[in-house]
Amino acid sequence: MAISEAGMSSDVAQVSEGEYKVLLSFRGSDTRYGFTDFLYHGLVDAGVCVFKEDDELPIDKMIGENLLHIINNSMLYIPIFSQTYASSKRCLQELALIVENVSKSEGQKSILPIFLDVEPEDVKLRTPLYSTAFGKHNEDFPHEAEAWRKALAEVDEIKGWNVKKDQSQATIVKLVVEKVLEKLEMKRKSVTEHLIGLEDRVKQLTELLDVNHQDVKLIGIHGKGGIGKTTIAKIIFNKLSSHFEKRCSFLENI
């Protein structure tokens, strides 16, 4: 994908579920409309293809084929350990699959854990917060519970972010987004903050490019100097570049 002030063109690839770069694993009842939502939109605004399950599913609902495909093909995993994360069989199943994927990836995939109002000691099952839930899991799912326990222990050893009630969640989200972009090696273009009046134009151009379509498209942006042509091109590049893995570039001043 190449974008210049004169115009934009793209080798448009078919975007499928398997092309999500980041997967968020979280307990919806704890964080869906709070921290997870803030993080999701922060990543999307940064141009990252991120998967967040939109519907609240029953705790014991099994992982379906589509979600399994997304887990297997994602590159980064962000488990958000909240107060009742360990109560959810589904969350623990996801975590075990995530750990398995990372262990098989030979360093190509990573886990970025977030401890949201919990301590690493909780995740290690050294306090009642998570260990109480595991008491029931041991009774109901004795074979799976051991794999879940090992997954929790392994992820707990990874350096992540501790988010306390008296901390700025916006600051943590910014740090996580920066780390994700670094891990994905995404080359983003800097744009002026607090842009006003460009949202409609960006939306229109994004719809015209239609990255889900297989055709190659060329869009020209023309007008007098200083009206924001390059800025719009940079915003579009930032929004769409992650769809093209590393096969994209921004060519300026040609």
Could you characterize what this model shows?
The chain has 254 residues and is α/β, with parallel strands linked by helices. The protein folds into 2 domains: 2-14 and 187-250, no CATH class; 17-184, Toll/interleukin-1 receptor homology (TIR) domain (Rossmann fold, 3-Layer(aba) Sandwich), CATH 3.40.50. 44% of the residues lie in helices and 13% in strands. It contains 10 helices and 10 strands. The protein has helices at residues 28-31, 35-45, 65-73, 89-104, 120-123, 128-140, 142-156, 169-184, 199-209, 229-240; strands at 2-3, 7-10, 22-25, 50-51, 76-81, 110-111, 114-116, 161-163, 217-220, 249-250. The strands form 2 sheets. Strands 3, 4, 5, 6, 7 and 8 form a 6-stranded parallel β-sheet that branches. Strands 9-2-1-10 form a 4-stranded mixed β-sheet. Strand 5, helix 4 (89-104) and strand 6 form a beta-alpha-beta unit. It is elongated, with a radius of gyration of 20 Å.
Structural descriptors:
single chain; alpha/beta; Rossmann fold; four-stranded mixed sheet; disordered N terminus
N- to C-terminal distance: 16 Å
Cα radius of gyration in angstroms: 20 Å
H/E order of the elements?
Answer: EEEHHEHEHEEHHHEHHEHE
Taken as a percent bin, the fraction of beta residues is: 5-15%
SS field, number of helical segments: 10
Give a count of the beta strands, DSSP E runs of length 2 or more. 10
Name of the CATH superfamily of the largest domain: Toll/interleukin-1 receptor homology (TIR) domain
At the third CATH level, what is the topology name of the largest domain? Answer: Rossmann fold
The structural class is alpha/beta
Number of domains: 2
Which segments are poorly predicted (pLDDT under 50) over 5 or more consecutive residues? 1-18
Mean pLDDT: 82
Based on the structure given, which CATH architecture of the largest domain is correct?
3-Layer(aba) Sandwich
**Biggest sheet details:** 6 strands, parallel
